[in-house]
Design a protein that fits this description.
- The chain is of the alpha+beta class.
- The protein folds into two domains: 83 residues, Immunoglobulin-like; 293 residues, Purple Acid Phosphatase, chain A, domain 2 (4-Layer Sandwich).
- The strands form six sheets. It has a seven-stranded mixed sheet, with helices on one face. It has a seven-stranded mixed sheet with strand order 12-13-14-17-21-18-22, with helices on one face. It has a four-stranded antiparallel sheet with strand order 1-2-6-5, covered by helices on one side.
- The chain is globular.
Amino acid sequence: MFSSTRRAFLGASLAGLASGRLFAAPPAESVKIIDDPPFRPDTLFLTWQRDPTTTMTVQWVSALGEATDTTVYYTPSREVRWQSQAAAVRPYPRTDLKVFRAELAGLTPDTDYQFRIGKQSPLYRFRTMPAKATNTIHFISGGDCGVNAHAVANNITAARQDPMFVLIGGDLAYDNGVAAATNLAFLRNYSKHMIGRDGRLIPLIACIGNHEVEGGYHQPRSKAPFFYALFDGLYPEKGFACLDFGDYLSLVLLDTNHTTPIAGEQTDWLEQTLRARKDHPNVFVVNHVPSYPSYRNPEPVKGKDGKEKAGTGSDSRKHWVPLFEKYRVPVVLEHHDHTFKRTKPLLNGLAHDNGVLYLGDGSWGRLRTPKTPDKLSYLAVSGRDYHLSLHRIQGRERFHLAFDERGRIMDVCRSGQRKNGLVRGS
């Protein structure tokens, strides 16, 4: 890490904060404002199923009949142009509750909107993503959250960075596919705390981890009932997907053997997806179990039964890492090990100036003591800290800033444009 990188990042961050917008538009006269709205869903959150520049999905969990009208009414904040979208209703597993979902489409990019649920909820706010990356794009990532006090502290720290969205790489609630109350607690915490400085709701994107799944690995979709009840708009059939933000950002979201095998169909899809985006400026891959772990052992070990057990990440190193390198993926976001880590830029497992950067390792609300760089040569830094990462895309550069749960800056690094068939990073 270079001091010039830190200065450049912090200077750009302060400039970005100084230019923040405020929601000042009055609500439309056709919508009556209620001083004490009777319907305030405490699980309300935003997500995406399609291009975030022109869509937004509004979603909440509640009892059927709790709101007499579940239509979502929305309008650009500075106009009186209300539209409506009825919410689809589906079961919320293992309870009598329902998932309510309304996808708002045909939205204007880079625009503030306000919305309400029926006529009896508060007014809420969101902002669509810009059509082009002419200004800085910034978002938060992390993984392995849970519902404890540390997870809440990181929620608050994340919201203070005023990100455009939050990306969780698996193990959101630790419901293990069976504990509805735990899953609901995660949603309530997220809904309560993930609010921007201007009052807008911060959208959530997620990929699957082992603690979304009863049995953890190699299970059918039915064993991850809460995850797919909430996120099957993005994952309608498989546990992997790609979310494209216009033509400037692609999030490639993978399933590390939880409900979809790494080998076979998913790897074939990954190659097709990366090939189609080989000239895109910003491709982030997100997965749960790390290819380059910081706590668990990457090498094969013998179990008590004398049988050899594959090292952590062996499948993804075999099937995915060659594709990351072939198609010049600059950054892979990994989780699962409950530590903070940054690898060196890697090619073929070795440090290389044109290598792929692996960031993680999932300690939003869970913590372990990692191995140190002298024990795992591919590590650049590691630490026992609850943390999250802020990513800023600024023209030809990407800055990656790690915060601890108190908001202290732990690490800053930079990844550059993809050139010459390889990744150039620092």
